[in-house]
Write a structure and sequence with these properties.
The structure holds two protein chains of two kinds. By secondary structure, chain A is an all-beta fold. In chain A, about 0% of the residues lie in helices and about 55% in strands. In chain A, strands 2, 4, 5, 6, 9, 10 and 11 form a seven-stranded mixed beta sheet that branches. Chain B is globular and about 45 Å long. In chain B, a hairpin with an 8-residue loop joins β9 and β10. In chain B, the strands form two sheets. In chain B, strands 2, 4, 5, 9, 10 and 11 form a six-stranded mixed beta sheet that branches. A five-stranded antiparallel beta sheet of chain B has the order 1-3-8-7-6, with no helix packed on it. The mean pLDDT of chain B is about 90. Chain B has no helices and eleven strands. Classes of the chains: A mainly beta, B mainly beta. Chains A and B meet through β5 and β10 of A and β4, β5, β9 and β10 of B.
């Protein structure tokens, strides 16, 4: 238990569906992250939020839309996804969004796009 | 630029030692090490911030050679619980915000 929770743990959605992933951290951290982990590929940073402000969008397609209403919660809204978007989506948090702080990961949401 | 890890995979018997290397083509500010077991979240192991820094806890330690832009993770007298995929994540010296770039991972299997 790292103090970062994610729901749902598994999600199957069609290409025309709209769904959201939720992440919550109980560590009092101020920075939160979304990562994508595909089979046989390294962890890819998607978005960074520091004190609720988005500080990084790593060239992510607009069909992924993040939302950070406060420092403890992070959402990833999904719409009109493609089969290649099937992956494990990991949320992480760190004390601050500046360099040098360790990140704590949630268990991830296994997403399958059909 | 993604760091390169070597080896890609290693199989050991319990009690043997392992070294995992992480090499970057850019100047680094820090190197982070994580371990991920199948179906679980990556778990933070340690962060190295300065050139020449070494850290360790229990039988897992790491070094960071800033000039060579390399880091190595050392696992001594390996235990079955050490099995998993090890990732290094690097932060560039020219970046202010945290933007970890991860290597492709090294799969470590410890057999009894």
């Amino acid at each position: 238990e790292t103090g970062v929770t994610q729901t749902p743990r598994h999600l199957v959605m069609g290409m025309t569906n709209k769904k959201s992933l939720k992440c919550e951290q109980h560590l009092g951290h101020n920075a939160m992250y979304w990562y994508k982990q595909s089979a046989k590929k390294p962890l890819e940073l998607m978005f960074v939020y520091n004190f609720k402000e988005q500080t990084e969008n790593n060239s992510v397609p607009s069909r992924f839309s993040p939302e950070c209403p406060n420092s403890s919660h992070l959402f990833l809204h999904l719409h009109t996804l493609q089969p290649e978007d099937s992956a494990l989506y990991l949320c992480a948090s760190s004390e601050e969004g500046t360099r040098g702080y360790e990140q704590y990961f949630g268990p991830g949401t296994r997403l399958t796009v059909t | 630029q993604q760091p390169v890890q070597s080896p890609q995979a290693v199989i050991l018997r319990e009690g043997e030692d392992a070294v995992i290397n992480c090499s970057s083509s850019k100047a680094l500010y820090s190197v982070h090490w994580y371990r991920q077991k199948h179906g679980e979240a990556p778990v933070f192991l340690m962060i190295l911030l300065k050139g020449g820094e070494q850290k360790g806890h229990e039988k897992i330690s790491a070094s960071f050679n800033e000039k060579k832009q390399q880091s190595s993770l050392y696992l001594t007298a390996s235990q079955l619980s050490y099995s998993g995929t090890y990732f290094c994540g690097t932060e560039g010296r020219d970046q202010g915000a945290q933007k970890l770039v991860f290597g492709q991972g090294t799969r470590l299997t410890i057999n009894p």
